[in-house]
Amino acid sequence: MVEKLSIEKQVTAQDCATHLKSGEVEVLSTPTVLAWMEEACAELSKKFLNDGEATVGAHVELDHLAPAFIGDTVVVEASLVEKGKRKLSFNVTAKKDETLLAKAFHVRVIVNKRKFSK
Predict the structure, then answer these.
(1) Domain containing residue 109: CATH number
(2) How many structural domains compose the chain?
(3) Phi, psi of 87 (to 5 degrees)
């Protein structure tokens, strides 16, 4: 059985490229899409952690394919595709209705919170 988790977000002005200064058009920014994708993966990762562990993002390949606008609802779905001893790999999508906005491959590494934190 494939482990999946979905989160739903509504695009606000603060999520737009103009606000984050990553572009000049008032559309959902790529940095925001990436943050939402990491959020979904981090949340799904919790199912596979022992006490005292957390995950950190280690790698991402992302294609931002279509725009979303202020007020649009975006569903981000993370699917675990590989579980290693210290590494979790995910395929992630962001959709507005049936429109694929973005897709990504994301890797998170399992760390000991106490040792990793300063």
Answers:
(1) 3.10.129.10
(2) 1
(3) -140, 140
pLDDT tens for 62-98 read 999 999 999 999 999 999 999 999 999 999 999 999 9
Cβ–Cβ < 8 Å for 31, 88: no
Report the amino acid identity of residue 86: R
Among 28, 39, 51, residue whose Cα is nearest residue 90 = 39
Q: Are 107 and 88 in contact (CB under 8 A)?
A: yes
Place of tokens 């202020």: 70
Joined together, the tokens standing for residue 94 give 């962001």
Assess contact for 43 and 77: CB atoms under 8 A. no
Cα distance between residue 78 and residue 22, in whole Å: 24
Residue 115 contacts by C-beta under 8 Å, 6 or more apart in sequence?
Answer: none
pLDDT digits (tens, 9 = 90+) for 4-60: 999 999 999 999 999 999 989 999 999 999 999 999 999 999 999 999 999 999 999
* Residue 39 belongs to domain spanning: 4-116
